[in-house]
Design a protein that fits this description.
328 residues, globular, single chain, mainly alpha
Length: 328
């Protein structure tokens, strides 16, 4: 819609897609902060959002100007979960959430996360349907069907689009290739990147050393007993994203970026909680822990800014992609 509006206003350059991508990235940043506040705390939300918006993943996909940024719509789904659980205006919220979920179905691979959410929240959804009554339940189903009708028609006309929407490859990779893709993905997150140089710095991982430590702490928190219900959704989305990217379909690392940084937010929350449990009344220890956390955040911001604004544009691999040689 944003690109169509820009074209109608007479702007047909790549700037239109980059502006649209930047606007969607801004929405993703706001949703990330909102989700982190409700999931953790304001302090953790502030620090983790700074890490998220300054990360190479966010900067690359937020300014590149293509449809990859739409795969951060997982933040929209998580936001809907919090709205669904907290609102008192259940009828209005139900219609709004159905509209948002229907719109997200048009983004490749997001359908898997909606199915995961339906499974995890099935009891709450059935309770809502009973509370709304038969009339509103029927209207909700008809409303959702109407909004997804163009997509359903597309499935009938072009069955190949089903594979694209579900993020599946044209042919399943061999077990050896699947293992190789998984190793490359894992390495690209914490050690060495293998993504295309047109939108990523050659050889750079998604996370720096400090963020990798926080990611590990976040994973410990996710799997620590008792596992919270919200953690199940984050664990599931991380697993599904990893599988889809490993399969080599239409899923990209943009799918993982917000999920990884939500896990990092969990790592920050977990480490802070453990630190304050050990030093509940010692003000020096409390402030030293906060200072260390802020130092890690500053280090990460400077690292990613330097990687994106200085190293990536000047790397020989990047110049070879974007330099056009004039004919002699």
């Amino acid at each position: 819609v944003l690109i169509w509006l820009g074209i109608k206003l007479g702007h047909n350059s790549i700037a239109v897609t980059r502006v649209a991508s930047a606007l969607l990235a801004t929405v993703a940043a706001v949703l990330f902060y909102w989700v982190a506040i409700h999931w953790y705390s304001k302090r953790v939300a502030l620090v983790s959002t700074i890490l998220f918006v300054s990360s190479s993943g966010f900067l690359h996909f937020g300014r590149f100007g293509d449809a990859h940024i739409l795969q951060m719509a997982t933040l929209v789904l998580i936001s809907c979960v919090f709205i669904f659980r907290r609102t008192r205006q259940e009828k209005f919220a139900a219609y709004g959430i159905v509209a948002v979920l229907a719109a997200c179905l048009y983004v490749p691979v997001i359908v898997w996360f909606e199915l995961l959410g339906l499974v995890l929240m099935r009891q709450r959804i059935l309770y809502l349907f009973r509370k709304l009554g038969r009339l509103h339940t029927t209207l909700l189903i008809l409303f959702g069907t109407l909004l997804t009708l163009p997509l359903l028609i597309r499935f009938v006309v072009d069955p190949e689009s089903i594979r694209v929407i579900f993020g599946l490859p044209a042919a399943l990779p061999t077990p050896a290739l699947l293992l190789d893709n998984f190793i490359h993905l894992s390495s690209s997150i914490i050690y060495r990147g293998y993504w295309p140089t047109e939108y990523w710095m050659y050889g750079a991982p998604l996370l720096n050393a400090a963020e990798s430590i926080l990611l590990i702490a976040g994973l410990v928190m996710l799997f620590k007993r008792p596992i919270l219900r919200g953690n199940y959704f984050l664990i599931g989305t991380l697993g599904v994203s990893t599988l889809l990217i490993t399969l080599g379909g239409s899923a990209t690392v943009a799918l993982l970026v917000p999920l990884v940084y939500l896990t990092i937010a969990g790592g920050i929350y977990y480490l802070l909680n453990e630190w304050l449990t050990v030093f509940p009344k010692n003000p020096i220890a409390r402030y030293s822990g906060m200072t260390l956390l802020l130092a890690l955040a500053v280090f990460s911001v400077l690292y990613h800014f330097r990687a994106y604004y200085t190293a990536w544009p000047n790397a020989p691999e990047t110049k070879s992609v974007y330099t056009i040689k004039q004919p002699s």
